[in-house]
Design goal:
392 residues, alpha/beta, Aspartate Aminotransferase, domain 1, Aspartate Aminotransferase, domain 2, 3-stranded antiparallel β-sheet, 12 strands, 14% strand, binds glutamic acid
Amino acid sequence: MTRAAPISQALARIAPSRTTAMTDRALALRAAGRDVISLSVGEPDFPTPDHVKAAAKAALDAGDTRYTAVLGTPALRAAAALHFERDLGLTMPPERVIVCAGGKQAIFHALLATLDPGDEVLIPAPWWVSYPEIVRFAGGSVAPVMTDAQTGYRLTPDQLSAAITPRTRWLLLNSPGNPTGATYSAADLVALGDVLRRHRDVLVLSDDIYAPLRYTPGDHATLAVVCPDLAPRVLTVSGVSKSHAMTGFRIGVAAGPDWLIAAMGTLQSHSSGNACSISQAAAVAAFTGPQDFLIDWRARFRVRRDRVVAAINAIPGLSTPVPDGAFYCLIDAAPLMGRFGDDEALALHLLDHGVAVVAASAFGGHHGFRISFAADDDRLDRAITRIAQALA
Ligand code: GLU
């Protein structure tokens, strides 16, 4: 293979994150004086709660500025175990929890620690942009399973059964899902569990980072709880970024079988070493402190979701289902593709009109784009007006 730059073959298999690339682009345009509203990145616009910021300051003042244990401070591993139990219904001893620099790093370390060339990873599409790239970087191959709006973008047991091969190493599940908001019920997971039981070598990564941001009634459902017999091969990933508006702190947590947590720890001991000590102290406060602000945040996200869905569906050529969780709308723009050619061209056209969005193709989808509705009402209203004008 001829390479333009002396990069590794592993890196040559992947591309930069298109969510972060679009956000960087919007920031650069803004710095150059352009008026751009960014709906490209998924992070709550609400301020990080005061008690979390106070815990970070107190940690700094207390001189909490050294290396921590590789797997995380005992306090945070215990707090994360509390979070898994309280918010996901998952009972996990702190010894089976690892703290990483973001959920992204937890996923990175899990896949890098377990994939060999030729191993397949089943990913329901549309997917979060980094899943397939991490798989490819780790040497695995991506086995996409296309879901659609008719099934609420949820993988069906028949699709799962048809997609599993003797090379399947992992299934990635994300509920509520980014970019579709797809949310699996306990019954959905029981049905998928029935299929997984027939394939003993398949591991499951359940990315539940958006669990606190669900808009449907009832408890959150997660595979390791709904099918406890499968728990020994499930890694459940969560964090504080989305639920506590702490994206910049970079703290993700994962709970799973001993061997996998140890393997991820071996890798982590040579990569980041440990997650930031100050951020870990802040995350303890996030998991153990008051959670009632979330009732208000959820209600406000829900109101925004409903406004945005109604406004988008009123724009000719655009349509979107109502997402059950997270804070994204995956918008179908198929009727406009004749005019724009592809969804990347459409996203660039919208950027020209002052709104940063991410093309659906970044998520393994097509003919559309994703917006995040984690922006204040005024920005959302202005962004939607601009989208309508850009497409008029
Ligand atoms: N997960 C968020 C998103 O999809 C943050 C950016 C990223 O890491 O992709 O926008």
